[in-house]
Write a structure and sequence with these properties.
The chain is α+β, with helices and mostly antiparallel strands. It has eight helices and ten strands.
């Protein structure tokens, strides 16, 4: 229990409400802590060891980059098996990761162990752009070069340049796999599963579509009927990637068709490839009011009323049209395959 005298003593030291308490000893700026020299600053042998460590890491990066390039050729994925893909991705990825990690660790070790370690306080100058300022900027770069040792530590500098140059080789090598191996890069897209009389079916169910089921303003995602019977080990995905179609119905008078293409549509129903002619993304967004098809990847737009011509975006040519008609039972069928290769336009086409 507190005594009455203790309470009076506490009250005597309590400041009055509303009054500022004077501070006799304000907190002062403690300044920078004392500088601690590193071992590389005190011992030349340790400094040389650190320098060797840095350029060794950069050369390890070079070796890892070259390994990634070699792995691309040593573990090909032409057979398409899961094991080949796994090994190819794993060994290329390990090479690229080791190359970039070695550059990063080497650069950090260089900065922490070898670059100038003194602390500086730089006051802001109220003006800039004058000749003295420009001269000071040049001097700052010269000082930075001197402090980092970039100009005089040739082994570190040169190994860094070689490592950075080698680190882009895996990426350049991987671009080789973006095009088919054949001498005719577009031959794989020249033909699809579509052929005369093949019914148009819903994707992915494979249910045939009657013309009467396609109402004004509607859009159907379509595949060849025979595709639904293929298994994944029989090339289902490869064939589907080329043959996917978007089916729409407009008023016949809204279609602007060339004379030779007037029989490619049926009572206002038109079918176009879903494979964008820019880089091959699926064109799957149909704007009913404007009759525009939109590619979600790079915003290319195609006008369905005028043979899917490009009206916006980077696509280089219209979407290929699938000629269609109906059979005796009223089902929509293809008149033929596409009359031109589907897919991107960046491959050479004749």
């Amino acid at each position: 229990m507190a005594h009455e005298g203790d309470t009076q003593a506490v009250e005597a030291y309590r400041p009055s409400p509303g009054l500022a308490v004077p501070v006799s000893d304000p907190v002062k700026n403690p300044g920078l802590p004392p500088h601690r020299a590193r071992m590389t600053d005190k011992d030349p042998k340790v400094e040389k060891t650190a320098a060797r460590t840095v350029y060794t890491l950069f050369y390890i990066s070079v070796a890892a980059s070259l390994w990634a390039v070699a792995a691309y050729m040593l573990f090909p994925i032409e057979d398409g098996s899961t094991v080949s893909v796994r090994y190819n991705n794993m060994f290329i990825g390990l090479g690229i990761a080791a190359a970039l990690l070695s550059i990063g660790i080497g650069a950090i070790h260089w900065a922490k162990a070898l670059m100038n370690d003194k602390e500086y306080v730089e006051d802001r100058h109220p003006t800039r752009g004058s000749e003295p300022t420009r001269a000071a900027a040049v001097k700052a770069f010269a000082d930075a070069n001197e402090e980092s040792g970039f100009g005089r530590r040739k082994m570190i500098r040169n190994s860094l340049f070689v490592a950075l140059g080698a680190s882009i080789l895996p990426g350049i090598t991987l671009f080789r796999g973006l095009a088919p191996m054949s001498g005719d890069p577009v031959h794989l897209l020249q033909h699809t599963m579509w052929k005369e009389g093949m019914r148009l079916a819903r994707d992915p169910e494979g249910t045939p579509i009657k013309a009467s089921e396609v109402t004004l303003g509607s859009a159907f995602h379509v595949i060849p009927e025979e595709l639904a019977g293929l298994g994944h080990d029989e090339g289902y995905l490869e064939e589907k990637a080329k043959a996917i179609v978007l089916l729409m119905r407009l008023l016949p008078e809204q279609l602007i068709e060339r004379e030779e293409r007037k029989d490619w549509s049926y009572d206002g129903i038109v079918a176009y490839s879903k494979v964008c002619t820019h880089v091959g993304c699926p064109v799957a967004l149909y704007e009913q009011q404007t009759h525009h098809l939109l590619c979600p990847c790079h915003q290319s737009q195609f006008d369905v009323t005028e043979e899917a011509k490009v009206i916006f975006g980077p696509a280089a040519r219209p979407l290929p049209q699938l000629p269609i008609t109906v059979d005796d039972e009223g089902y929509l069928v293809a008149r033929s395959d596409f009359t031109e290769p589907v897919g991107p336009s960046f491959w050479e086409r004749h």
